[in-house]
């Protein structure tokens, strides 16, 4: 498979400012040496607890925030080193769908103007071209042209999210970050939006990073799945492999947290305690404070993300133990 993105040793450490003098008293370690490949025309699901760094990773990939260090290579070019002017073409090719459709649309602009804005920003002034594209996109998301003269407050949450999706794809991007795009919607509407994204992915040959904490949605929409814990990728595999043959205790705990009706008496791993603070992460393996299989090495050394097959990686010392 051909790579669209190569994320290499990506770090995002926010300084913690103390007092009026602005002294730095520490850091919030949001991302830590993240290595991740995203392949063309795939949907990569990104899952983990709140505070694990999922949204920060998405924002760094789009360079909406500047990471502390590392590389984000898009089509062979490191976008982190690019200036604001040089990023203009990248911005047209990589877009974000926000979580909350009630906050992401300007309430003072009509839908037509909201969809027209990306053209203006990118210096496209051909009125006929703009009008034709807007009408095509509105039809593509399953809405009628008459919505173009209305304001966001006149629509439901699901309709607003369709409009937000239309804005994201209006310039034919290659890549979309969908950051919890259905979590603010009613359950009855979530499936419609997820199916719309799948249809658009096929129709427009999109590549997508789909961020969610809902494993049932992740399983439905994704081709591969990456699991994040405290700023790190702890497991990544193809969808079926991750659900049927997961190896990391944290992945197992996330799956065990999904309610199911079953007579299976197999002991389950349940998460105890809260996610440790990213201001003061545990030494060694970051999951060792909550892991039922913790060993002494876990408290002292930090595990690498290791290949256990061509498509499956895990960050855990248990792999070496199970092999021996």
What are the salient characteristics of this protein?
single chain, 324 residues, alpha/beta, Rossmann fold, eight-stranded mixed β-sheet, four-stranded antiparallel β-sheet
Write a brief caption for the model.
The chain has 324 residues and is α/β, with parallel strands linked by helices. It is 31% helix and 25% strand. It has a single domain, classed as Rossmann fold.
Q: How many strand units?
A: 12
Helix proportion of residues, in percent?
Answer: 25-40%
How is the CATH topology named?
Answer: Rossmann fold
Strand content: 25-35%
Largest sheet, if any?
8 strands, mixed
Read across the widest sheet, the strand sequence of neighbours is 6-7-8-3-9-10-12-11
Q: H/E series, N to C?
A: EEEHEEHEHHHEHEHEEHHHEEH
Termini, distance in Å?
33 Å
CATH class: Alpha Beta
**What is the structural class?**
alpha/beta
Overall average residue pLDDT: 92
Question: Which regions have little confidence, pLDDT < 50, spanning 5+ residues?
Answer: none
Q: What is the 3D form? A: globular
CATH architecture: 3-Layer(aba) Sandwich
Under CATH, the homologous superfamily reads: P-loop containing nucleotide triphosphate hydrolases
